[in-house]
Amino acid sequence: MASQLIHFAGLSDRDRRIALPLPKLAAGDRLELHVHHEGGREQKLSIPPSAAAAVEALLAHMLRGERVAVLAEDQELSPTEASAILGISRPLVVLRMDRGDLPFRYVGKHRRALLKDVLALKSRLDTRQAAMDALADDTEDLIQTHGL
């Protein structure tokens, strides 16, 4: 699969004011999409229950004014795209690839990493950062409590 730019979509303030949130779906509820074509033709699409939760989450984020992107876990990302997700620079992503922290493959001379691998690395980095933050808090507490 070739890498594609990550496209974010959001709602305008006007659309957010007029759109209604999707009610919480209960077991057995069905979600349908009604498409009104320009020529007047209408089409009804049934959304599978397994996809309804994703649609619900997507709309909730957009109604809060957040921009969203939908990606498949096997989507291949360039180092630049991976850096946007990881919150680190592109050269640091390349370094992580070279060290083996982020699996990748070459497409021609370009590096590509799977989204699921980028997200796994992000999880590890977030866990490490949380541990470092907790250690810093403990150190501050020791300094304040014991005057070290």
If helices are DSSP runs of H or I spanning 4 or more residues, what is the number of helices? 5
Low-confidence stretches: none
Largest pleated sheet? 3 strands, antiparallel
Can you give the helix content as a percent range?
40-55%
Shape: extended
Structural class: alpha+beta
Query: How many DSSP-defined strands?
Result: 5
Tell me the span between the first and last alpha carbons: 56 Å
Share of β-strand residues: 5-15%
The ordered H/E elements are HEEHEHHEEH
* Sequence of strands across the biggest β-sheet: 3-5-4
Mean pLDDT: 88
State Rg: 22 Å
Topology:
Blueprint: H1 13-18, E1 31-36, E2 42-47, H2 49-63, E3 76-77, H3 79-86, H4 90-99, E4 105-107, E5 110-114, H5 115-146
Antiparallel strand pairs: 1-2, 3-5, 4-5
Helix pairs in contact: 3-4
Fold and architecture overview:
It is a single chain. 48% of the residues lie in helices and 15% in strands. Strands 3-5-4 form a 3-stranded antiparallel β-sheet. A two-stranded antiparallel ribbon has the order 1-2. It is of the alpha+beta class and 148 residues long. The chain is extended. The mean pLDDT is 88. It has 5 helices and 5 strands; from the N terminus they run αββαβααββα. It starts with 12 loop residues before the first helix and ends with a helix. The longest helix has 32 residues, at 115-146.
